From TrEMBL:
Pfam families: CASP_dom
Membrane-protein topology: Multi-pass membrane protein
Organism field: Linum tenue
Protein family membership: Belongs to the Casparian strip membrane proteins (CASP) family.
Protein name (record): CASP-like protein
Locations listed in the record: Cell membrane
């Protein structure tokens, strides 16, 4: 693959990751719905009510800003080895934020009979749908960043020792 084609492919991949993490943050941050329990007690479900969802939004915003800044790095810069380290750290940040948010979303959807927590997605289906969409977008961003890390390791570190010096 020619160098310009490779750079274009990496740019496109980074744009996909940027868009996915941006969508994940925006969809989760805009998720809210009012519901009621037994028709008597009303409440509003928002992402900011749950620390795991706040962490998910903050992590995706951080990764989105980083992804935007990396787009302006020249392809022949020596900083790409440092980008590999940041890609790896931010991929781990995405893994932890998605894991935390997914655990809370699972409790919201299925409940926990041992703890006495009832499922709430029947009362607030729009909120649960938005949360699910945000998690899917976040997972897409995670997969793309994982692929970028794998490619960068192969390009910069040559783990299989196939380059001849």
């Amino acid at each position: 693959m020619a160098m310009s084609q490779r750079a274009t492919a990496i740019l496109a991949t980074r744009l996909i990751a940027l868009i996915a993490t941006l969508i994940a943050a925006v969809v989760m941050a805009s998720s809210h719905e009012k519901g009621s329990i037994f028709g008597a007690i009303s409440y509003e479900a928002k992402y900011s009510d749950t620390p795991a969802f706040k962490y998910f939004v903050i992590a995706n915003v951080v990764v989105t800003i980083y992804g935007f800044l990396v787009l302006f790095l020249p392809s022949e810069s020596q900083l790409w080895r440092l980008v590999l380290v940041f890609d790896l750290v931010l991929t781990m940040l995405l893994v932890s934020s998605i894991s935390a948010a997914l655990a809370i979303a699972q409790v919201g959807k299925k409940g926990n009979s041992h703890a006495g927590w009832l499922p709430v997605c029947n009362q607030i289906p729009k909120y649960c749908s938005q949360t699910t969409a945000a998690l899917v977008a976040g997972f897409v961003g995670l997969v793309v960043y994982f692929l970028l890390v794998c490619y960068s390791i192969h390009r910069d570190l040559d783990p299989f020792l196939v380059r001849k010096n």
